[in-house]
User: What shape does this take?
Amino acid sequence: MIQIGLSFLLSVFAWAGPGIVGNGGGVSEQNLVYAWQNLESFLSPCQASAESCGLSRTEGRVLGAIVTDHAHERLRGGLRFAARGQTVELFQTEPRVGAVITWNTDLLFDESHGSARPFDLVRGLGLLVEALATHHAFEADQARRLGAGISRFFREGYQEFWNSEEEYRTVRLIVLSPRSSGEQAVLLSDGESFTDLTPFFKEELHCPAGGSGSAFRVSGLYWSAQEGSVRPGELQARGRIAYSCPTRFEGAFRLNMDFEPTSGGSRLRAGSVRVQLLQAGEVNQVTRLYDETGSN
Assistant: This one.
């Protein structure tokens, strides 16, 4: 049995779980743990305004208590992933703050699409809120509704982009677009760790009058073919980006990352993330900032 209740970096979580990472329950476990370690950041919009997240006042009050007490939960409690047959429920915990939450790894799958798939990050976040709500005297049905409400809030605009190449089968890009926020978050998971790519995008949001842009949104994201200047071990994704300067700017971007092989797939090399705007300009007046080689 693995217990995870330690502090990790907010933007990067290193996974050291059991089994083959990126296959079945391993992905679900990684999503649950990342949501656990970043719970306050995820829930801050709903804590500030329960109504904007479609929650009742009572649900908002309990959600606020979950966020307020989470530092204590992390110190005293944690997540456990039970071996086969050790628990019959999806999760088990006690009705008190700081109680350990035990997850049944045999049930960490979503079968709503006709085949068993690991829980994605949004599903994991909702289940985690459901479990934590029972620590605050919420009955099972109430806790389930609160968790489902959080999942609905984050499901709108949520996207996952898995790489289709066999050697990069554990690599995925995740875009989070909460409807009450003008800005997205872009994450990378390589099967062993999560990395927040958002700061790399923000560094490239240059405005003509100086300063940096804000409230960026990416769209049309896709993994581009391994050709041209892409080196062995390098992956490239492309898409469109819009941001405020404060007038609206739009353009194209290129995201390059280097990976090294592992026994279960591929691992992101430290310091290898590169985001480059290929075109960016005011809407209806696109100005080229970079040519295809990256020079000004």
About this structure: The two ends are 54 Å apart (CA to CA). Helices lie at 25-37, 39-48, 57-68, 70-76, 121-133, 140-155, 198-202. The longest strand covers residues 248-262.
